[in-house]
Amino acid sequence: MQTDMDPRSLIGRKAYDRDGVKIGTVDEVYLDDATGSPEWAAVRTGLFSRDAFVPLEPSTMVGDTLRVPYERTLIRGAPGFGVGRHLSPEQELQLYRHYGIELSAAPDPSVPDRSFGSVAGEED
Q1: What secondary structure does DSSP assign to 7-74, as a single string?
Q2: Fewer Cβ in 10 A, N or C end of the chain?
Q3: Is 118 helix (H, G, I), strand (E, B) or coil?
Q4: How far is residue 41 from each of residues 46, 48, 54, 59, 83, measured CA to CA in Å?
């Protein structure tokens, strides 16, 4: 994922899986609280469906679309946490495990009241 891209510019873009199958539309972008870098995107998977969280680090922009390097079934099976709230350390770890992403320094789930994944454009 391009690190110089404004994460708000991702909202409303179409997202596709690794095979070019449409997943849905980016609803929200979540930033890493420590770095401020875009870390997760919530993708609306259908008109009456929920948002699925996808990792932005291995994802790329191809033209005006987000290409997520995972199969659609894996993405749709991601843990659902709702949107518009911070991801807790436990929720973030669940997402990393779901996608099989190794963490060099895993968030400490024992740290109380620590928020991960602030929503892009949201004021503290």
Answers
A1: GGGGTT-EEE-TTS-EEEEEEEEEE-TTT--EEEEEEE-STTS-EEEEESSS-EEETTEEE-SS-HHH
A2: C
A3: strand
A4: 15, 18, 5, 10, 10
The answer to whether the CB of 28 falls within 8 A of the CB of 22 is no
Q: SS3 of 87, please?
A: strand
* 12 token code pair: 């409303």
User: How confident is the model over 55-90, as pLDDT tens digits?
Assistant: 998 899 999 999 999 999 999 999 988 888 888 889
β partners of residue 68: none
Dist. CA 73–CA 75, nearest whole Å: 5
| Amino acid in position 36 | G
Q: What are phi and psi of 25, to 5 degrees?
A: -120, 135
The closest of 34, 11, 12 to 121, measured between CA atoms, is 11
